[in-house]
Amino acid sequence: MKITILGCGGSAGVPMIGGQDGAGLWGRCDPREPRNTRTRSSIVIEGPGGESLLVDSGPDLRTQFLAARIPAVHAVVYTHPHSDHVAGLDELRAVNRVIDAPLPLYAAEDVLEELRARFAYAFRPWQGSGFFRPVLETHLVAAGQSIRAAGLEVALFEQRHGRTTSLGLRCGAFAYCTDVEFMTDAVLDGLTGLDTWVVGCFQHEPHVAHAWVGLVLEWRERLKPRRTILTHMGPDMDYASLLRDLPAGVEPAYDGMVITVS
User: Fold this and answer.
1) Rounded to 5 degrees, what angle do the CA atoms 97, 154, 40 make?
2) Which of the residues 41, 81, 125, 169 has an alpha carbon 20 to 30 A from that of 229?
């Protein structure tokens, strides 16, 4: 199984728009380090059969696919309806053209409602006359379910994300938990035995809606995955500093990072 980190930044990316010269706000991130340039968080999971599952479609999706050399995906699952995770939905029409078929879409009821409100045209009945818009085959899912998508068996579970919730997912010995600041004991128990865990970690200090470094390290001590990779990082999370200061087995992600899990 191959996982590609399309983007590992927070909702505003790194750098954020602004700066005296318009070159962006970098926070504590060194602009000379290319791995500090982060687009919005998303991944692609490629299974042994060659099909690929996209997790979220943020506003940077087109450039992410081109940079990571992703030719197509065969299904998409949405973790929650925030803009930095769904705003690139229109780019999926290019995927339709490549695979020459509607794209299966998996999402919880509240996410589907938001997507239909924002992208109503993408959910109209398809007449089979080309892909001038995204064409999506919707599948309603809920936390606690396991689904088969793009040839992969994926277990879904609920995470608290501030005032709302998000879906985490586990696929064999790999799990992806972005946009989370609390998980129940039952959910954490279901994340034992991992080889690789990609988990959202927005900053060093506590945050109301996102995990922070200390909290992730607490979870990691309980779960004991072989490898823990931080994603959804804000502008205070400098790549080189994290690489230096984090314990062995914990590392920051970077856009375009490729992970192999057996």
Assistant:
1) 60
2) 81
